[in-house]
Amino acid sequence: xxxxxxxxxxxxxxxxxxLHAEFERDRAIMALKNYDAQQKRKALxxxxxxxPPWYHREKPVRRTWTVEETAALENQYSxxxxxxxxxxxxxxxxxxxxxxxxxEKRLARNKLQAWVYHKLVxxxxxxxxxxxxx
Length: 134
Known about the structure:
Elements: E1 5-6, E2 12-13, H1 16-50, H2 67-76, H3 79-123, H4 127-133
Antiparallel strand pairs: 1-2
């Protein structure tokens, strides 16, 4: 492999043959990328012909339920499942009320604590030192 040549400006430059070889290499890489992209597109088109995307497919036929079938389904579910669900929802609501009450108590305690802290600082003759000590 031939090295770079020294130009009149004092810097090394590739020869015309090296430039041409680099150009051909870049061109071959670009052609390979284009070929790969084309193959991908062809594969995607073939796959879409086999199974079209969901927005091109036929709509499935909706099933119509008879009155007897719906009555049978309603009878299938017992009141036991509904009782469990109702108990779970009541417990969830009760827990939510408890959490809200605890949050309100925490807020009131924090307000009172801040008020006491500021009152102590304001009544102390050496307020800056007292504040730093707390």
